Amino acid sequence: MNAPILDYAAVGVGPANMSLAALAHPVEGLRGAHLERRESFSWHPGLLLPEATLQVSLLKDLVTLVDPTSPFSFLSFLASEGRLYRFLAADFPAVLRAEFNQYLQWVAGRLPSLTFGADVHSVDFHDGAFHLRTVEQEVTARHLVLGTGLTPSVPEPFRPLLGPTVFHSGEFLLRAPEVTGRRVVVVGGGQSGAEIVRHLAAGAAPESITWVSRRSSFLPMDDSPFANDLYTPDYVRRFHALPSGHKARLLEQQRYTSDGIDLQVLQDIYRLSYRDEFIENNPGRLRFLADCAVTAVEGGPGEWKLAVESSGPDDAPAVLAADIVILSTGYAYALPDFMAPLDARLRRDGGMLVVGDDFSVAWDGPAENRIYLQNGARHSWGVADPNLSLLAWRSAVILNSMLGETRYPV
């Protein structure tokens, strides 16, 4: 018998599509499938450092800001696990990322629409529906939701060298490098770089840790009330309506509301540097090179030589020697390979996908069949798009669009 045509098929099970699944769960008659190539859920496992925390409120979970009564909220998780009162008494300044990962795994185990170990290798459209193919099955759906996440950005000089001693920060815990007595260079001045520097300086014994950043300094995140207004539905709707040139200027101006470093992490690192210099009598173990760029790499796994150019007033070495290089160089969106059959049908402006006010991508197919984009429209929707802040709201907008009615107030 032919498989039924689902209302939607979502590819990728990260927080974005899990939010969609959680909000879709109570909608009677809605049929959806969420396909994930990994065998089980994990959220940035390479960066789940024990001391790392969220940079957003615990209310910005998968569902709460759209449906505070949902059984899939972070507070429901705490209550279900018998830790609500202890959590309140602990009075954490921010939610530990490891605990938020436990919450996400808890939700994943309660959503029947999620299928793991389903690697989608192609998507096509014909006969009024999208056809998604995995090794074992074909899924047919009226709508398609892309939630495959961001891919690591690796600077060109490092691309041919990736391996056990040169790797992206997203692999840090998975690689578990032996750093004792070794020279470690961390490239990239954002939050993940800061967390790794703090982790290495506090708990390991590298010979040296050098932190290199193109930025003028190691800059804190702007977490002020007016900055947080940029992460509200009202603001992102207004941003979405602006001309593309205006959007690009605002994205640059607003970058440190999301790409800056948590102030507590910076304080911890500075105190660790003070400890090394004045208490442990080990000045220079921690080195900070701002306004510097790595322009070339030579050598091999035994010793890497990094050519450094500085545009700042401080003296920076022309060449850095390293045993281990960790690239905290961010992430970018790339259309997944399985979309190749439909790629030419997607509309672009200046090379970027055109994303509508319901997060659907403009394409040349029927208007009643939509391709929705999760966490890939920063150029169109602003700095909040890759952030946890508007997960629930964006999922609600997509659900309302698919249903053709206002199931959730947005």
UniProtKB/TrEMBL annotation:
Keywords: FAD, Flavoprotein, Monooxygenase, NADP, Oxidoreductase. This is L-lysine N6-monooxygenase MbtG. Its cofactor is FAD. It comes from Streptomyces collinus. GO terms for molecular function: L-lysine 6-monooxygenase (NADPH) activity. The keyword Oxidoreductase applies. SUPFAM superfamilies: FAD/NAD(P)-binding domain. Its EC number is 1.14.13.59. Pathway: Siderophore biosynthesis. Belongs to the lysine N(6)-hydroxylase/L-ornithine N(5)-oxygenase family. The keyword Flavoprotein applies. It catalyses: L-lysine + NADPH + O2 = N(6)-hydroxy-L-lysine + NADP(+) + H2O.
